[in-house]
Amino acid sequence: MRVAVAADHAGFSLKQVLVAALRARGHDVQDLGAFDATPSDYPDFAVAVARVLSAGAAERGIVVCGSGVGVAAAANKLPGVIAGMCHDTYSAHQGVEHDQMNVLALGARVVGEALALEIAEAFLGARFDGVARHLRRVEKLRALEARWGRDG
Ligand SMILES: O=P(O)(O)OC[C@H]1O[C@@H](O)[C@H](O)[C@@H]1O
C-alpha cells in the first residue's frame, strides 16, 4: 500500500521506527519528515501528508506528534482527509471499516513502539466495508466539508 508518513520533533523517533518497519513489510512508504528531532510545528508535517492524500498520491497517511491530537486536527483541515487519533487497534481498524478513515494520528508520548506498529498494521490492513449506514454517514462528512469550504 502507498503510505505517506510524517512527524514533528516529538514524533520523529517513532516515525523512524514506523517507516522502517512498514517498508520491511512491503508497504510503499513516502517519508515526508521530519528528518531530525529539531523542534518543529506539527501542522507543517500533518499538512504535508494530508496534501498527498488529498491529491490521491497515497492511499493512507500516518502522522505522529507528541499526543496525536495536533496532527489529527491539522490533517482534518484538508479536503478528502478523514484523520483519527487511535491508540488502540480496535479504533484503528474500525475507523477505516466504518468511517473511511484514511489518516492515522499517533501520539509518540502516549504509545510505545510495539503498540504503535500493531495500531499501524491494523489501520493499513483494514478496508471500508461500504455498508449503507456507514456510507450514509461518510457522505454527511463529505457534505459538511463541501458546505464549509475547506481547502488545502
Ligand atoms: O515538545 P513540545 O513543544 O513541548 O510539545 C510538542 C507537542 O505538543 C503538542 O502540541 C503536540 O503533540 C506536539 O508534538
UniProtKB/TrEMBL annotation:
UniProt record similarity statement: Belongs to the LacAB/RpiB family.
Keywords: Isomerase
NCBIfam families per the UniProt record, alphabetical: PRK05571.1, rpiB, rpiB_lacA_lacB
Primary gene name: rpiB_3
Signal peptide: none
GO molecular function, one term: isomerase activity
Protein name listed in UniProt: Ribose-5-phosphate isomerase
Pfam families in alphabetical order: LacAB_rpiB
Keyword Isomerase tagged: yes
Keyword check for Isomerase: yes
Gene3D superfamilies: Sugar-phosphate isomerase, RpiB/LacA/LacB
